[in-house]
UniProtKB/TrEMBL annotation:
Keyword rRNA-binding tagged: no
Gene3D superfamilies for this protein: Periplasmic binding protein-like II
Position of the signal peptide: 1-17
UniProt name for this protein: Sugar ABC transporter substrate-binding protein
InterPro entries documented for this protein: Bact_solute-bd_prot1 (IPR050490), SBP (IPR006059)
Tree of life domain: Bacteria
Species of origin: Streptomyces pharetrae CZA14
Matches recorded under Pfam families: SBP_bac_1
Entry keywords, A to Z: Signal
């Protein structure tokens, strides 16, 4: 019997085309996603539904808008019932898509991917989170999800403050540090940050990536080799982080702030540089009205935090899988991919030169730079369940004056324990 929370998930929150249940007759497509109604992706999926209806005039589309939490908490239970949708948006990662794939609840899409050429529309690094092995770990040879968009961490600059203080825009790590020093000399804390949320940990991992190669990333994220947390990559990261704290490039008082506090530092022009995810891009476009700003890849690192986005999956118990495949194919089309880009998100299969929105084109160009160079290195908390809290505590410890070696030990303990348990 389904739990009450799972039963609630079955009740339509938003429907279009009725509430009938698909019966495997090729005449009904049941679709779930959790994007906010006015967001770039929701607008793209609305357009994809319209296109699907045009190309499938005899098919009824039953769309239900869920919340991320509803699907995250109850997906396994729902997909193991006869109420599974034909296609739904689902979170990438070993603990989510990987787990359901291992449990046999998701359709292996590998033959369809090859037949429809979806694999040719994205880079190897962007597809890692769509592919899983028999253990349910990402990077395998079987496709269980199809991402339509990308996500990554990049640099946001307040161009007006750079001009006002005659600071040159950085082109590499050396000039980036020079810019930090010039702003600090002018009495300005240069870097936005938030210690009680993901940004502080993202900074630490990004600094490690500036000294990392493909092998180190594969070892850390995919368990392909032993990771030495006291090696040059992480040692450089904690030492540089401590140095920037001591020099006042970060404010130690940021230790208690959340991500929205960090963006407010940038929007209010208190900090001229913010390094953060492209997920902040849309709100910045709306919130910033009184100064010029731009984006660029983080200088001095060929790698950054990022991956393919959350993706479409087809449940094993879906009744109309062919219709689900047709819908996914539409979301991968040039028309829908271009719409994602024009709306300010990062399409996974559209070229920047096809986008007319200049700031969106700048964003997509940065993503393409990383994607084409195998530069998407995922996120620091992915390898271990519950590791996010470890990274949060470790970076707060560092911001509060903890010794770098102690911070590295703090990060290493749960990681090493998990890796040992896999053997």
């Amino acid at each position: 019997m389904l739990a009450a929370s799972a039963l609630a998930l079955l009740a339509p929150l938003t429907a279009c085309g009725g509430s009938d249940t698909a019966e495997g007759d090729g005449k009904t497509l049941r679709l779930w996603h959790y994007e906010q109604q006015d967001g770039a992706l929701s607008k793209a999926w609305d357009a994809a539904i319209t296109e699907f209806k045009r190309t499938h005039p005899d098919v009824k589309v039953v769309f239900e808008r869920k919340t991320f939490e509803q699907i995250q908490q109850n997906a396994g239970m729902i997909l193991n019932s006869d109420k599974a949708p034909d296609v739904m948006e689902y979170n990438k990662g070993n603990a989510t898509t990987g787990l359901l794939a291992k449990q046999g609840l998701l359709t292996d899409l590998t033959p369809v991917v090859e037949e429809r050429g979806w694999d040719k529309k994205m880079s190897e690094s962007a597809s890692v989170t769509a592919r899983y092995d028999d253990k349910g770990e990402m990077g395998g040879d079987k496709w269980y999800g199809i991402p339509n968009y990308g996500e990554f961490v990049l640099t946001y600059y307040n161009d007006d403050l750079f001009k006002k203080h005659n600071v040159a825009k950085p082109t590499d790590f050396k000039s980036f540090e020079a810019a930090l020093a010039e702003f600090k000399a002018a009495g300005i804390t240069p870097l936005a940050n938030a210690g009680n949320d993901h940004p502080a940990g993202h900074w630490l991992y990004l600094l490690a990536l500036s000294r990392a190669n493909d092998t180190w990333v594969d070892d850390y994220q995919l368990y392909m080799g032993k990771v030495d947390f006291h090696g040059p990559e992480m040692t450089f990261a904690v030492n540089k982080y401590e140095e920037w704290l001591d020099k006042g490039y970060f404010d130690k008082k940021d230790v208690g702030l959340k991500g929205n506090d960090m963006t407010e530092q940038f929007v209010s022009q208190k900090r001229p540089i913010m390094v953060g995810g492209n997920w902040w891009f849309g709100s910045l476009t709306t919130d910033i009205e009184n100064f010029s700003w731009s984006t660029a890849p983080f200088p001095g690192s060929e790698k950054t935090l990022g991956s393919g986005g959350n993706h479409w999956v087809i449940p094993t118990k879906a009744k109309n899988k062919k219709l689900a495949e047709d819908f996914i194919d539409i979301t991968m089309s040039d028309k829908i991919q271009k719409l994602i880009g024009e709306q300010g998100n990062v399409p996974i299969a559209a070229q920047a030169d096809t986008i007319t929105n200049p700031r969106a084109k700048e964003l997509i160009t940065a993503f393409d730079t990383y994607q084409s160079n195998n530069g998407l290195a995922f996120y620091p908390d992915w390898p271990v369940t519950g590791y996010y809290d470890t990274w949060l505590a470790a970076t707060q410890n560092l911001m509060n004056g903890g010794k770098p070696d102690t911070v590295l030990d703090e990060l290493a303990a749960p990681y090493d324990k998990y890796v040992a348990s896999r053997s």
